Amino acid sequence: MITMKHVEESGAKIGRPRAFDRDLALSSAMLVFWEHGFEASSMSILSEKMKMNAPSIYAAFGDKKSLFLTALDLYTGDVTEIKKFIDSAETAYEASDQLLKQSVVRFTGRSTPSGCMLASSVASGSAEAADLQEVAAKIRSKIEGFLRTRIEFDMRNGQLPKTTDAEGLAGLTIGTIQGLSVLARDGASRKKLLRIAETAMLAWP
Amino acid sequence: MITMKHVEESGAKIGRPRAFDRDLALSSAMLVFWEHGFEASSMSILSEKMKMNAPSIYAAFGDKKSLFLTALDLYTGDVTEIKKFIDSAETAYEASDQLLKQSVVRFTGRSTPSGCMLASSVASGSAEAADLQEVAAKIRSKIEGFLRTRIEFDMRNGQLPKTTDAEGLAGLTIGTIQGLSVLARDGASRKKLLRIAETAMLAWP
DNA sequence: CGTGTTTCATAGTGATCATTATAAAACGAT
DNA sequence: ATCGTTTTATAATGATCACTATGAAACACG
Fold first, then answer.
1. Interchain contact, B178 vs A177, CB within 8 Å
2. What phi, psi does B109 have (nearest 5°)?
3. Are B34 and B113 in contact (CB under 8 A)?
4. Interface probe, candidates B141, B182, B189, chain A, greatest A C-beta count within 10 A
5. Residue B33 contacts residue B68 (beta carbons within 8 Å)
6. B161–chain A Cβ distance below 8 A for any pair
7. Residue A44, Cα to own-chain centre: how many angstroms?
8. Greatest CA separation found in chain A?
9. Does the CA dihedral B61-B82-B101-B170 come out positive or negative?
10. pLDDT grade, residue A12 (50/70/90)?
11. Which end of chain A is flanked by fewer CB atoms within 10 Å, N or C?
């Protein structure tokens, strides 16, 4: 165990070299989960798309749930980065507008599945996968909290009226993003979704 | 075959009587699909909740996809009724507002699963279930069309400005409904969702 | 070259999937 | 009571599920 750790830390290669690129394989797994969701993504198709045998996947990423969570991490990125983005925006309005527009762009990428992985991959599922739904819910809740805090900040600073419904606007933004994901998966064009996003911003004072 | 048809038409009972209530069983199936989605709803748990053996289910509803489609029909009801509702409303604004509010109520019912069966049950899935996703998409598209037509009607009648973005508002309404479903499944309260719905209506001119 | 270590590839594990074959049960009609 | 019909219940079908046991392959090091 000690030698193992030492070897890993020094970066020396011992034993048979891996035949896969970890980042690439994880990215492939992300795309599979993104497209088909957690439950409908079988280990066999994951194995195929990741170009890894099942035992290699388990050795590198743990079981299917762990793999999914790691892939979800790759999809969402660091949530504190989102907070930074929201806080560093000119206004809460601008932050929400950008969030919506960037979501639309991401949901309609040509080289990725349609919609939002966070929204669709665990939208429903068996009781055994309920914990994954909670993970997704918590991420949404966090982002909504960031937005709401920023809106309240703007209200105190006079950039938004004191009567603004921070909870309503933050919820609408997150809700609209999730709704845009559904429409994107239905095949709606980027142009149309951008128009819906613009329309949603009309709700702001 | 001729006798069979005749017997069915005349309503006479022949053979062993069924031990299940078709409507009740279908309703139970709907609840299962609503909660867990199409793929995660196994025939074994459907069989349990419907209080029917698998062979009885297949005899009465066909295969799993047919059962799902029949259950989805029960959930959505007659879409032309929705069109009637939209057209008979005072205004397009009122129709959209009512649609949002009724959706929230339905998504947060105490005796039913959270969220929208149309939105969550086929939000993702295997390639073999892609046809079901299309069915859901078409229903959404139809309702969106009804709304858009009504908005354009109001624009011509002067109840809405000529500059109104009918596509944007109709899309926002449908999108928001789908987004509200996600938030409902996350555990958001009816009160909070109603506030988000109200906020969405602020986008109207 | 031989040894230790790690990963690879194959082939399996039992469990569960949707679906169905089989036959007994329960009825109306004869 | 027997027959025809329909539904019941049990048990099985092959396929696929997530996951793993096993052993060969491929490297660094002595």
1. no
2. -70, 145
3. yes
4. B182
5. yes
6. no
7. 24
8. 65
9. positive
10. low
11. N
Sequence-ordered list of residues with C-beta below 8 angstroms from that of B31, at least 6 positions apart, any chain: B49, B112, B113
Contacts of A97 (CB under 8 A, 6+ apart): A197, A201
B17: DSSP letter: P
Query: Closest nucleotide (CA of A5 to C1')?
Result: C5
| pLDDT value of residue B103 | 98
**And the tokens for A27?**
């990215």
Q: What are the Cα distances from residue B184, in Å, to B103, B131, B192?
A: 10, 26, 9
Q: In residues, how long is chain A?
A: 205
Residues of chain B contacting A39 with CB distance shorter than 8 Å: 37, 39-40
pLDDT averaged per 10 residues in sequence order, chain B, 205 residues: 37 81 97 98 98 97 98 98 98 98 98 98 96 98 98 97 98 98 98 98 98
User: CA A178 to CA A185: how far, in whole Å?
Assistant: 11
Q: For helices A130-157 and B166-185, give the axis angle rounded to 10 degrees.
A: 120
**Distance (Å) from CA A54 to C1' D22?**
14
Q: Which amino acid is at A27?
A: S
Question: Which positions on chain D have an atom < 7 Å from some protein CB?
Answer: 4-12, 16-22, 24-29
Distance between alpha carbon B24 and the CA centroid of its chain, in Å? 18
What is the predicted pLDDT for the residue at A1?
Answer: 33
A10-14, A94-98, A188-192, B125-129: segment of lowest average pLDDT:
A10-14
Is the CB of residue A115 less than 8 Å from the CB of residue A182?
yes
Predicted pLDDT at A11: 56
Q: Tell me the pLDDT band of A7, cut-offs 50, 70 and 90.
A: very low
| DSSP states along A144-176 | HHHHHHHHHHHHHHTSS-TT--HHHHHHHHHHH
Confidence of residue A14 (pLDDT cuts 50, 70, 90): confident
| Three-state DSSP state, A93 | helix
Looking at residue A15, its pLDDT comes to 86
Closest C-alpha to A76, from A20, A146, A168: A146
How far apart (Å, rounded) are the C-alpha atoms in residues A194 and B12?
Answer: 59
- Residue B183: which of A205, A167, A94, A78 has the closest Cα? A167
Cβ separation of A120 and B124 shorter than 8 Å?
A: yes
Model-level pTM? Answer: 0.93
